[in-house]
């Protein structure tokens, strides 16, 4: 047995010990792999995929997650939460990530319990330990179980295992709350959020699947992988016209390229430590 096979075997044993679980399901590769293994090992009736709809994620992502969960043979349940109604989240401070996850977990736990599911799993993985993740504190406080972390699984390993299981989105580009597109301290509004959604949709339709539209007041900073710079610059006139149509006065390309979690670069390690 390889090391990777042993890790998956440990995950299977862990799920078997729980017997009946609800899973915080986003449609991303990590929670998809977890859901697939859970359904395969525990059976459809003992697994419930909980998909949360929020203003800070695309409705399209929510709908696709529900469809994918059903394609995997899982029972899926959609629930909604209003993050912008919580001033602590809308304030978009480093602490907002904690309150966002707290709201997420509490929403899922309540709905899952009403369906008879007392154990809730999430899709956090070992890679998350190396990033700024205030949500881990909320996870621990709410009693959510990170089974993929317990099995010592990393993103690259999950992609390999997911591909072996025939999961269609094994190479899916990671998504993140649109709050990550704004500097800390920038209050989140529905209009600002929808402008980011529109800008990123335009860029994806233009052929850039990995993209971030970062907003700095009336300036928009576009991140794509460095290998895509020439391709993007060839479309600069159309891009500029579209972004200015959304109300931005300045449109820029970030010469450092795409980087997940870029807005966290401004946080000092001491500040991060108080929130994790």
TrEMBL record:
Active site: 176
GO molecular function: sulfurtransferase activity
BP GO terms, sorted: purine nucleotide metabolic process
Top-rank taxon, per record: Bacteria
Stated name of the protein: ATP-utilizing enzyme of the PP-loop superfamily
Family annotation (Pfam families): NAD_synthase
Species for this entry: Pediococcus pentosaceus (strain ATCC 25745 / CCUG 21536 / LMG 10740 / 183-1w)
Database matches in NCBIfam families: ATP-dependent sacrificial sulfur transferase LarE
Lineage: Bacteria, Bacillati, Bacillota, Bacilli, Lactobacillales
Ranges for domain NAD/GMP synthase: 19-84
